[in-house]
Amino acid sequence: MDLTTGSIIEKNNRAKKNMMLFSMISMFMTFAGLTSAYIVSSERDDWTRGFEFPSAFYVSLGTIFLSSIFFYLFKKTTVSNNHSLATLFFVSTFVMAISFVYLQFMGFGSIYEQGYSFTGKGANINASFLYVIVFVHLLHVFGGVIVLSVVGAKHFKKLYTKENHLGIDLAGMYWHFVDALWVYLFCFLLFTR
Prior knowledge:
- The chain has helices at 8-41, 55-79, 83-113, 125-156, 166-192.
- It has a single domain (8-192), classed as Four Helix Bundle (Hemerythrin (Met), subunit A).
- By secondary structure, the chain is mainly alpha-helical.
- The chain is elongated, with a radius of gyration of 19 Å.
- The protein is built from five helices and no strands.
- Helix content is 77%, strand content 0%.
- The mean pLDDT is 89.
């Protein structure tokens, strides 16, 4: 498709989607760097192995996966002009997002209870890496919750239509990316601990 053709609105929409893709690539590079540093640092003599992976992280994996499914259904029903069903799917997405955040904090608590802390007594290099990686992802999820809140406010005002749903498209790109990122981080941390 020629990126220079189309109306001003179409060009604007393409530009916004391209900016979102650029942002997602930047986020991916951040986590690629963090996980690469984790792998390199795991060769250190003071690296502790075998901590118990928090069960809350397993549950959060299912929670964030469900949130992506619900968001997909939210978009589909919004575009189909089924506002009441779209509302159900949006609320389900939002509840799953908040549940994910809660489960992440439970996972942090479990790691701390095992005697691993970010700094101070009980701190070690791999626990510090784990805290940083999960916390940085959690910051991106907080950003996603804010985005979901904006989309939800516009949805409840019935501002999205079959023809006008760019906000949902952009939010979906971001939310699905953050969800896929957690799947990657979960697998990475589970198998390299």
